[in-house]
TrEMBL record:
PANTHER family: EGL NINE HOMOLOG-RELATED, HIF PROLYL HYDROXYLASE, ISOFORM C. This is 2OG-Fe(II) oxygenase. Its cofactor is L-ascorbate. It comes from the Bacteria. Residues 107-210 form the Fe2OG dioxygenase domain. Keywords: Dioxygenase, Iron, Metal-binding, Oxidoreductase, Vitamin C. GO terms for biological process: cellular response to hypoxia. Pfam families: 2OG-FeII_Oxy_3. InterPro entries: HIF_prolyl_hydroxylases, Oxoglu/Fe-dep_dioxygenase_dom, Pro_4_hyd_alph, Pro_4_hyd_alph_FE2OG_OXY. GO terms for molecular function: ferrous iron binding; L-ascorbic acid binding; peptidyl-proline dioxygenase activity. The keyword Iron applies.
Amino acid sequence: MNELVEAETDDFDRSVGDAAIEGLARKGYCVVDDLLHPDLIRSLAGELAGLEASGALAAAAVGREGGRRQAAEIRRAAIRWFDGSTTTERRLLDVAEQLRIAINRRLFLGLFDFECNFIAYPTGGFYGRHLDSLSGARNRVVSMVIYLDAGWQANYGGILRLWETTEEDAGTVEVVPQAGRIVLMMSEEIPHEVLPAHRPRHAVAGWWRVNASTGQRLDTSR
């Protein structure tokens, strides 16, 4: 089934998107190349480089809402959240919306919105093993990582290591963060870590969420 047949943007490859969603359905994660148009990858990389040069990034924290804190022993990176104020950001957010619709059609997840940030790891930067969403929290349901560094090689470090399940003896998959490579994963089901980078490493990280609003509490991003 062509889940993305109604997509209205040329910034991604529909057939690659369909294959990615099928992989997500089968395994809980997928790794694909060439989902996004190379021009969009270059634009994202250029925008992040400009933000980094201007000092617009902030140290990344761990935890959610009131429990957020900076913890250098767990994570060393800097981020800036998307606010949709630039053409490049809007292009990616448009793609994310088309993917949200397609994932919901295939997996019936009720994804409601999308949040994402630019992320820069310095030399020596890393992120210890974690889940993007605690079991049952439902604040993040599907995660996406988009890599931006052209010419990245395995010996540069910064490898993304995925565990195929949360079981202790789960198999692992190691992903070299080459420009244009994208990882989708179920946020509650796939533990992962970023191994130390031997040179600066750049990406976009994003999450599709469900609407967790109640009569007593308004759901907000981040």
